[in-house]
Design brief:
Layout: E1 5-10, H1 15-22, E2 27-32, H2 38-44, E3 50-53, H3 60-65, E4 71-74, H4 84-89, E5 94-95, H5 102-118, H6 120-128, E6 148-151, H7 155-166, E7 171-174, H8 180-185, E8 189-190, H9 194-197, E9 203-206, H10 220-225, E10 230-234, H11 243-251, E11 255-260, E12 280-282, H12 291-309
Parallel strand pairs: 1-2, 1-3, 3-4, 4-5, 6-7, 6-9, 7-8, 9-10, 10-11, 11-12
Helix pairs in contact: 1-12, 5-7
């Protein structure tokens, strides 16, 4: 009799992931509701060898409840809901999905940039309101020649840089973990000092991970450093922009506009001030959630977990790589 390993998978995970798990006769795939109570989750964790997470918080208490756990997979590349140090203490690798949704997020970020510069929403509203004769008051801007600062030069940031360079936009890249020679090799200019780079950019794009060091990264002081008339785009995680300070800068006319896929509180309250501004473009945390990306993330997440259970971890997708040097 085959001794099956059990994977706990979100019920709403992409079908390609379920298919990858069920193709293995030595794997039992069990669904769970990632919005269920903590008690219900802990009860299911007792005999689990791997779990795939959407936005479920996962830390020490969950690890204690899962004595057989060998791997945690994230359906994406963000990990702010996971206690990585706790996983590391327990010698559990956290697997991310690498390139699976990088194109989706980069494309949505570029779409935001175009919507802001070309004033897409205002143009649409003008036509619908029969204000055709007022069209010359809008003043859309060109992307070509506009400088963009990408904060976080990982897979998504590097892909976005390619798009921007193709549009004749000079690109500054800020990433403390990326060697300057590597940045220059992409055709971009390293910007190691964030505060020095911010005033140079017409577009500031936030694509870095959310960590204790990046919470409130763009606070009142840093937003005030931005170039007058610049745009701010966040397709990373909520909580890295002081939303009240951003609102004040937009209302005062210091910034020309902003685009947010993520918020400090999700969903944002109905009376959130930013929801009332016409020069703000918003999305419900879906930059990386296209039809193709959902299937790619699901499939890669399952492959990641299987690689660990098979004793051949997919090294490139392990976040806390130090656990691979230890013996469980």
């Amino acid at each position: 009799m085959i001794n099956k390993k059990r994977l706990l998978l979100p019920y709403n995970m992409g079908r390609a992931g379920w298919d990858a798990a069920r193709a293995r006769t030595d794997i039992e795939a069990v669904e769970f509701d990632d919005e269920a109570s903590i008690e219900a989750l802990h009860a299911m964790l007792r005999e689990v060898h791997g779990i795939a997470l959407n936005y479920t918080h996962f830390g020490e208490a969950e690890l204690v409840a899962a004595p057989q756990l060998q791997v945690v997979g994230r359906l994406g590349v963000g990990y702010d809901t996971v206690d990585v140090p706790a996983l590391t203490r327990h010698h559990i690798p956290l697997m991310l999905t690498g390139e699976a949704n990088s194109a989706s997020v980069a494309e949505q970020t570029l779409a935001f940039m175009m919507a802001l510069a070309k004033k897409t929403a205002a143009m649409d509203a003008m036509v619908r309101a029969a204000q055709w004769n007022e069209r010359l008051t809008l003043g859309p801007a060109d992307l070509a020649g506009s400088a963009v600062l990408i904060v976080g030069f990982g897979r998504i940031g590097r892909r976005l840089a390619k798009y921007c360079l193709a549009l004749d936009m000079p690109v500054l890249a800020n990433d403390p973990y990326m060697p300057t020679d590597t940045i220059r090799a992409t055709g971009c200019e390293p910007a190691p000092v964030l505060d020095a780079a911010v005033p140079q950019a017409d577009f500031v794009i936030i694509l870095c991970p959310k960590t204790p060091d990046t919470i409130n990264l763009f606070d009142e002081t840093r937003i005030a450093r931005m170039k007058p008339g610049a745009f701010l785009v966040n397709t990373a995680r909520g909580g890295m922009v002081d939303e009240a300070a951003l609102y004040r800068a937009l209302v005062a006319g210091r910034l020309a506009g902003a685009a947010l896929d993520v918020f400090a509180q999700e969903p944002p309250p109905a009376d959130h001030p930013l929801l009332q501004l016409p020069n703000v473009v918003l999305a419900p945390h879906l930059a990386g959630v296209t039809r193709g990306a959902l299937d790619r993330m699901a499939e890669v997440t399952v492959w990641n977990m299987l690689s660990v259970l098979d004793g051949r971890p997919n090294y490139e997708n392990v976040l806390n790589k130090e656990v691979l040097t230890w013996t469980r």
